[in-house]
Queue: 4 jobs
Job 1
Amino acid sequence: MGRRHGIHPEEGDLHIPGVWTHPPGVRPRMRDVSDERTAKRTTGPARLREFFPVAAAGAVAGLLAAFTSLTVAELTAAGVREEARPVNAVGGAVIDRTPAPVKDWAIATFGTHDKLVLQLGILALLGLFAIVVGVSAMRFRRAGALAVLGFGLFGALVAAGRPEGAGADAVPSLTGAVAGAAVLYVLAGTGLRMFPDRPGPGERAGRRGRAEPPGSGAARTLGGMERRRFVVAATTVTAASAGAGLLGHRLNAAGRARAAASRAALGLPAPSSPAGAIPAGAGLDVPGLEPLITPNRDFYRIDTALSVPRVDVDDWRLTVRGLGVTRPLELSFAELLERELIERRITLTCVSNPVGGRYTGNAHWIGVRLADLLAEAGVRPPSRGGPADQLIARSVEGMTLGSPVETVLDGRDALLAVGMNGEPLPFAHGFPVRMVVPGLYGYVSACKWLTELELTTFDGYDAYWVERGWAARAPIKTQSRIDTPRGLAELSAGPVAVAGVAWAQHTGIDRVEVRVDDGPWTPAELAEEDSVDVWRQWVWTWDATPGRHTLQVRATDRSGETQTADRVGTVPDGATGRHAVVVTVS
């Protein structure tokens, strides 16, 4: 018979070109055409419908493996330190390697929520990675587990390789990775397979060696037993991981609670040199104007710490060492408080503050004179023959900020602050000790959670931000800001109070001027000066006329320098330009 009739040649058939024949008396075997039709039906949409349940199980397995990794790492970090948690370590590494313009954009866009956005982004990427690895593990079980181990190894290397990192910081990432790999390996081995074994001649191998007809194993759905095994395993993993995470959270919380208790029990001695009363007229009563003293809850916070360090004062130590130090010091917090304390009102400004920005604040600070402590260690400024021209301040989480030695020893009220606005420093602002140096941007002076002072040179050491493209020396630039009216405000014609603040720390503000549109500059009324280290409020009464107007402000400091109109971004040493707001008068 011809091939078109679907007859297979058997052994012993006579073969004539174009025609199949068979011996007399032998019945020809017909092809089972239904097998081909069945195979075709398992492709396309039907195959996808069979694929999705297994892929979903793989995604769940991957997410549970990631959850296990994080919770076990959280538990392990309780025995190391919170900064060693994988999300913190990887997030810190991202911050370390982010170019300055990108970092500046993140601060301008997200403000003080930039760290939360970064952490959520890391978790989202981790979740995506977990899903891909989990789905792949349903076919490549060992490869999926190895991928989890590799990701954990990456986290361990990042944690140990950070500026403040140590070998122990790698342990949480490694233990979490081992636990996550084990979970994925177990869940992927509960009888689930995305694809069947490769078929043998004439048949496909079914489960437990039973033969299946050709075409039936192209893809298969999860059986009831497989679902139950997977659900039981997944539920067990979820419960165990949640328990580990809860225990780790409680252990970490216990450490934070001890630090909080040490702060709550702390009573700061009265300063031997108080700041004195605020001069009458230094604070203007204008609605919408920033108050002269910034409350702690409103004080800006810009740093790289993904979780705020919480240090127990009983564990805190400060060391002073380095070039030109003839008497190295190591002080406890109690020993630091034995030194003379002074109180000063000082305005701080972040270098990331754009023109008209809010990253500046004024507070009462209580602390020890930095110059007195350095003199006790035998440090001399370069102008008196000292070999060190840079003071590196190092925080408990490894941040390094470099200040000019000559500047901190020139007589200004540079402090190792322990109090802020009448209470111990808040944790977010550096408890138990931070540096405050009037006249310098925060990134070269205002080290929070201070633990070490090292004397060195600018040629010999680049601090954290200098390594990332910022200037090594950064005195604060004269700036002014309009607080009220706000941009795009709708006003009524007539008298309008235009008010704001101006600052030029350690130089002082002498004049503030305002103009409308392209009109002449008009002097504003200045509040009384508290000190050259404190911003000055100002107000100008404008007889507003209907229409759309641009209000602009500029300040002149005591050295005679007036704010430039040239707009420059914050990198590498602070923004320049004049603040302006657009309003509509009706």
Note: Residues 224-264 form the longest helix (41 residues).
Job 2
Amino acid sequence: MSDKQKSGLVVTAHPGDFVWRAGGAIALHAKLGYRMKIVCFSFGERGESQGAWKQPGMTMEQCKAGRRAEAEAAAAILGAEIEFFDSGDYPLNFTDGMMDRLIDIYREVNPSFVLTHAVRDPYNVDHPKASAIAQEARIIAQAAGHKPGPSGVTYTAPQVFQFEPHQPEQCDFKPNRILNITEVWDTKWKAFQELPAQRHLWDYYERVALNRGMQGGRNSGKAMKYGEAYQTIFPDAVEVLA
């Protein structure tokens, strides 16, 4: 058995996304000893900071600094490291240099799984764009001719889990994984509280977690209070069905 630490990579457009949609998975796997790395493309300074922009005299730089501090605090609570690309939001302005860095991160972290946005989201153009970027980097990272070295490429492209969008029925989101996050719900809720700029979403995403927990318990036959829903992009290759 390998003693190498397992890892997970989260690729997200805005700070709130990794907390509302994947905070339980991040906290759970960090608790299990995984290295959890979050790549946050923007600070959500334009479109994801409603509370901040209600403050008199708010500036773009103040908003970005505040959202960065919130995201760093939330990531620390969840047990993850975080890296920002400062791509801007609404829309994301993703550069070649950012793509190059993201590919390097895939190879460096060599994640067992990737969590990112749904491939469709008619309500937010940043989300499917971030998902497409995450998948593009995942593919290029396994290309032997991309930054070839003497040891070759040791990275293996992992499964990609789409986390739940805000209005799943409009995004063709059909989850095939419900993760039991009951044991880390308190940690996720503490991370919520580090995002006062989006206070209006706290209760909504608690209700989502309770609904998914009920569905998870019904599908598994095991008690589950809080859950997170995911949809895989690629088929899983297995030796037996169950």
Note: The mean pLDDT is 96.
Job 3
Amino acid sequence: MRLTAVALGLFALCGTSFAAQDSTQAFQQALKQVPQAVLSAPEAMQFFFLDVQAWRGLEKAGPSADAMRRLSIGQAISPLQSIGYGLDKWADAAHISFNELSYFAGFGQPPGNVAYWGLKDRESAAKLADRLKQADFKPVNGDVAGLMANGEANKPDMTKASGQDPWRGTMGMPTFVLPLDAALVQASTPTGMKVLAQPTPSVADSEIVSAAVAGLKEAVPSDGGQIVQAAIISPVLGLQAADPAKLLPATPDDMESAKQKLRALAETSGRGIPPYFAGVIADVQTRNAPAVVFSLAYADCAAAKQAVDGVGAAWKQTMAGAVQADVQGRTVQAGKLCAAVISMTAPKAENAGNPILAQIMNRYMQRDFTVLQIGSSQ
């Protein structure tokens, strides 16, 4: 993998090579469990990930209010919406200690969203499945081996409703669960479980996503940083005024079709960075401070360099006054593609939170995050 440093005036780049390390292992394990078709969803953020061990490692006790507020990416994953009542109560209802989990991941919008409970190995996943069977989960007849549920699809049971229960929730809705390698897949209905049971090709197999992950790997050395949360983003994030259904190609890795569609839309959207195929937004904890990394997949490093320059300029114009951050940028060659990688690091860790991520997600929720806006010029 070839690393090209991009000197920017405002960017203080480090010259250390991290090619030998890999901080993306848990993230990639999650991506391998998810069908690539997820990348065709017309959503700005298509996939969400939380490294449980990295998040719990932010503080010795807790989780504190700052650590909970940091879950602005992970909160989209349904089982995490129950932890506000306390991890002990969550564990009683989940039939597993929170700290035994490796990761959580998910995609989709309620009520059709899907969650993944990642464990350290197949044996651990099988043990959790057995505990659920000993509770109130029963086998589901059909063509998906191992599928089980704690009720009938779309039939809530208010006598079992509980905000503390990640398998039921406040409306008492049933859950369908499928053991898959070292994970459990959780969904509200059995619809689509046959596809989820055979996630090939997976999101990890996408050449575009692989390029973005390669850039993320370069930016986060495993001996000095951890990925706490991450989201796969689509060009919808940078073209919010456009019709999402018209942005993405029918086949996730159809780059030629994607280029044609995005180029046409970029020319009509005004100022912004070159259109990217997809990318990753990652919440990172270094040894001394929280950070956020953007890694955007491009067809070549010339376009990626323009993006690095453009994101740096947009950050300075729109975000520098809201939160203090050391901004660095680089391009990373990844096979035939190239990643534009931009890191924003806080001066120090004030607590278990991430003020940079908080600002980004607040702006995103208000539809006012323009740093990654796609356009024809700067």
Note: The two ends are 29 Å apart (CA to CA).
Job 4
Amino acid sequence: MQDRGAARRRMLRGSAVIAAIMFISGCTPPAPGPDDWALEPISFQNSFVGSGPEATPAGPPTDLTYGMHVLSSDGAGGFWTASSGSWLHVGADGETLARFDTEPGGPLSKIGAMAPLSPTELVVVQGDRAHVMPMLSVFDTTTMTLRDLPGDAMGDEGDLDFGDFEFGDVAVHDGGAIVVRYQPRPPDDYLDFEVLRVDLDSGARTLLHSGPVELDDAPGARPGVPPIGIDVDDAGRMYLATPTARIVLTADGTELSREPQVADHPLVAVAPDGTALWWGGEPEQSDAQGVLVGGSSEARQAIEPRMHCAETSSSDALRLSDAGGQHPLPFLCGANAAAWTDGSWVVATGGEGDGVLVRVTPPTGS
């Protein structure tokens, strides 16, 4: 697991600033205890004057935006996020390193998932089948260029081979992509999902695992295919969040565990040691406590309805899995996307007008 010291120091610096502000206003600032989860809205620079290295910030930073739906570590302690062609890169120190909008209809406007290959490269899933054929690519974030991988042609393994019909989520391990791919199974009313390891030079695919997905799973995600999230730990274990189960696989695809759930938008984000946050299922009672640290009044107002999910009958609840088992968490249900980076998780919540990126730091006493 990465060192949590940097995240703790950053959280403490942010708390000190908030404490000073609230001291002046006569308020007592929230202070997470050693057994509390800290939830901190992330601010970023939303607009610049100029472009490239000469660009300068325009206006104050913000911590409230539209909802982000694609999120990835950048491989260097920061993160990338994107939604509908709008991209944001925040570094390990919280500095906004990039913020840009792509050309409508361009390849970078149709990114469905991404994962870090190196500090300057992302493996991205292009296409939504309705507008652009699905494709795996490597995105060089310094040159802003895409290198498309060879695809899998339809029918080269028989009449029921649909090639790269549609991709789901993607992760990276040991220089290869681990990707979810869907395959129709006519005349039956279901798909197969496949977990493939993809060589990032040749595009060669190795099937690691597969299973059925009912078309009526995850009705809240329609009209798209039922979503499946995937992530990988340092040992190569694969974590699959499906509409019906939380699954852990060995590096060769052997199933280690399976826990049932019902989820419209299942997600999983894994720390290097295998500690994972999962979204799916109904909220459960929990002794865990989340403390909202800092943030603007608008960001706090957007997050507060998600602080006590069991009281709001929300779905796609959050839980932690670690060596000690499964632990329900009462906050941040119904997230859009999540990723582990620099000792904490970054979680995207909300939509147009109430979207917030939240840094979720585990208890320091754990």
Note: The helical segments are 5-25, 297-303, 309-312.
